[in-house]
Write a structure and sequence with these properties.
Length: 242
């Protein structure tokens, strides 16, 4: 039976900047995975987004590498070492990083959009809905939520098992709740959001990046056309009703 108890020491034990250093590497499977996950999330930001919130920002990589400008961006995370890293490497006017637990912290809003990249799977099942309701309260009416999480109806469980045994992070211990498209949309709806779209990406393309980035990107495009529901990553775009 899967342990659904939150163990903060497992997350806090990830070396500061680990995922940012993967991103900065500029090659390989993990780099490809992070780069294209970020690009998928960013591509769904509303055109009029001026105030952006990143929940579970880690070392600040997503906000620090945005390819489109916003007036104000705030990244929050539980892990103080990750926030220290983000401040050292990415802080600039209009971009702030803060140690905060959304469940108890007061964050001044509203925001035009909020992103939550690979966060809700780390929460015990009973805490997912309260988390999403808290996000709902930080968005302006009509604001957008963009959320990514592993897709349980894919190869992800096998990938998680494999990577947890050969890599430095045990994802099987950290991931407490996995979703499919239907359940994720229903959970967002229960928290007061209007789901606009769900999609998946990444079947085998990231693994081809070990040989060639160009080939991996070609396969990624083909997977989107031919296998639109089988990707290991699940993306939800939802709106707080006006």
């Amino acid at each position: 039976m899967r342990d659904t108890t939150f163990h903060p020491e497992q997350y806090l034990g990830i070396p500061p900047g680990y995922y940012d250093q993967v991103f900065r590497r500029g090659r390989g499977i993990q780099w490809f995975w992070h780069r294209h996950r970020f690009r998928q999330v960013e591509s769904h930001l509303p055109a009029d987004c001026r105030r952006l919130l990143d929940l579970g920002c880690g070392p600040g990589t997503f906000l620090g590498n945005l390819e489109r400008p916003v007036e104000r961006a705030l990244g929050v995370d539980l892990a103080e070492p990750q926030i220290d890293y983000a401040r050292r490497h990415y802080s600039r006017p209009g971009l702030e990083f803060r140690v905060a637990d959304l469940r108890v912290a007061e964050i001044e809003g509203p925001f035009d959009a909020a992103v939550s990249i690979e966060v809700i799977e780390h929460l015990p099942p009973e805490e997912v809905a309260p988390f999403l309701r808290a996000v709902h309260g930080l968005l302006r009416p009509g604001g957008t939520l963009i959320l990514s999480t592993p897709n349980v109806r894919s190869l992800w469980p096998l990938l998680e098992w494999t990577v947890s045994r050969i890599g430095p992070v045990d994802y099987s211990a950290q991931h407490l709740d996995l979703f499919d498209r239907r359940r994720l949309a229903a959970t967002a709806r229960e928290a007061g959001f209007e789901p606009l779209a769900t999609k998946t990406f990444f079947v085998l393309a990231p693994f081809l990046a070990l040989l060639s980035t160009r080939l991996a990107e070609g396969l990624l495009a083909a997977e989107a056309r031919l296998l639109p529901a089988l990707g290991a990553e699940l993306l939800l775009v939802a709106r707080r009703p006006a």
